[in-house]
Structures are given as C-alpha cells and as structure tokens.
Design a protein that fits this description.
This protein is an alpha/beta fold and 260 residues long. The protein has helices spanning 46-53, 94-104, 109-122, 138-151, 168-185, 196-202, 224-227, 231-234, 238-259, and strands at residues 4-14, 19-30, 35-39, 61-66, 69-70, 79-82, 156-160, 188-193, 205-210, 215-221. It has a domain at 88-154. Strand 4 (61-66) and strand 5 (69-70) form a beta hairpin.
Length: 260
C-alpha cells in the first residue's frame, strides 16, 4: 500500500464574482520514507496542494489518503509543517517551544524534556534549551523549528520553502541537516520550492507543475547516485548539472507557453 495517495484532486477558489481553478486532476503516490518535491512557478498550486495534504481544507474534488485513510477523517493524525518563518513563540524558551506540542498532547513532562534534549542534539543545538528565539540566528531558529516539528513524531513532514529566507551558506548547511535528520528518523517529506537545485539535491522524485490551472507537467526521478549523497555533495556531482539543465529547459518552455 502507498503511504500517501492523491487521486484526481481538483481545487477551485470561489468568490462572489468568479471561480478560479487552482488545481486540476492531480494524481500521485508516495512511499513511506520518500522525499519528494513540488517545483514550479508562482501560481501553480503547490502550496494549495500542500494545504490539502495537511487536511487544512478539502479539495473541490478527489481524495487524499494517508495509509489508506482520508486525511480529513483522521482526528489523531499528526502532520509536521515547516514554513519560511520559524514561528517560534518569542516569550517561550527554545525548550518550551519544542515541547509545546507534546504538552498539548498531554505527554509526560520528563519524557517530553528528554525528547527535546535529544532533538536539539540531533539538529546541532545542544545547550540552547534555556535561550529565547531572539538570542539565536535565523538558521539556528529554523533548526529549532525542525526539532519542534519532529517532537510530536509526525506521520509526514510538509516543508513550504523553509530555507528561502536564509543566506545561501546557511541554506546549504540546513539542506544537509534536514536531509540527514529525516533519513535518520525514517520520515516521509514533501517540499514545496521554486529552487531547481534544492529540489534535485534533496529529493527522490520531483513533480514539475504547470500553472493556470495547477497540474503536474512532468515527473523527474532523481538518479540513485545523487540520492545516496548529501545535498551539498549532490550539487557537485556531474549528474546534478545534467538534470538541472533538463528541468531548466522544461521550466523555460512552460514560461513561453504562458506568455505566448
């Protein structure tokens, strides 16, 4: 059984005057432990689809199944969501931020603290549990946000351009950290990005979206020789440049079709 299955999903945004199609006939499946990317221009429905997967609202048509069950009918479902902003509560310490979800789930306090300490160690932030978000750099706050996301042991992680606000060096370091951490925890992840290089370096498979309405234009399997490397190492492999050029040309052709 596929871990995540999306069947014939359409979505339309309605206003009093108009109906705007955002997604059209989206079909895909993800196996447990895979890392996939949604890549495409602005307005192609990537974030809308991510929100539907998260169960934030139902699609206009179609179904989204996680482990064979509709996401909207699973009250106990834990889905991790990482955004461009870290959204740490500034009045709480890093430790309190990370254990907040566990507290809401009524987990044992000592066990929650132990989980937080291990996660901080795993994301390279040992000893910061008593500091406040304002005392950390942007990259450190995103590491803390990753630890907070993993603390509740989510079924799947949804990553909506989580590195786009960071400087390039920090972004590359966090790509490696996130990739290695998710593999270590055996997590399934979906990344929304505009960055071709990021999608190649981090993913097992890339879904390239066309816009107006959003639909899957082409699917790219990332070569195994890249998937076995860290994202930083993958960027320096000959296969990376070849795939980058192929995807770039597809994006260029899509842009030309929009403006024609």
């Amino acid at each position: 059984m596929n871990f995540l299955t999306i069947n014939h999903v359409d979505h339309t945004y309605f206003s009093k005057q108009t109906a705007t199609p955002a997604l059209q006939n989206i079909n895909l499946s993800i196996e447990k432990g895979e890392f996939i990317s949604f890549l495409g221009p602005s307005g192609c429905g990537k974030t809308t689809l991510l929100s539907i997967i998260a169960g934030l609202f139902p699609p206009t048509a179609g179904t989204v199944l996680l482990e064979g069950q509709p996401v909207l009918s699973r009250d106990e479902l834990s889905i991790g969501y990482m955004l461009q902003q870290d959204y740490l509560f500034p009045w709480k310490t890093i430790g309190q931020n990370i254990t907040l979800g566990l507290k809401l789930l009524k987990h044992d306090k000592e066990a929650s603290l132990s989980t937080a300490m291990k996660l901080l160690q795993d994301v390279g932030l040992p000893g910061v549990e008593h500091q406040y978000p304002r005392e950390l750099s942007g990259g450190m706050r995103q590491r803390a946000a990753l630890a907070r996301t993993l603390a509740v042991d989510p079924k799947i992680l949804l990553l909506d351009e989580p590195f786009s606000a960071l400087d390039y060096q920090t972004k590359l370091k966090l790509e490696d950290l996130v990739s290695e951490t998710l593999k270590a925890y055996g997590k399934t992840a979906v990344l929304v990005t505009h960055d071709i290089g990021e999608s190649i370096a981090m993913s097992d498979r890339i879904y390239l979206f066309a816009a107006h309405p959003g639909r899957i234009h082409k699917v790219f399997e990332v070569p195994n020789e890249l998937r076995l490397l860290t994202p930083f190492q993958a960027r320096n492999h000959p296969s990376y440049s070849s795939l980058f050029q192929t995807i770039w040309k597809e994006l260029e052709s899509l842009e030309h079709s929009y403006t024609a």
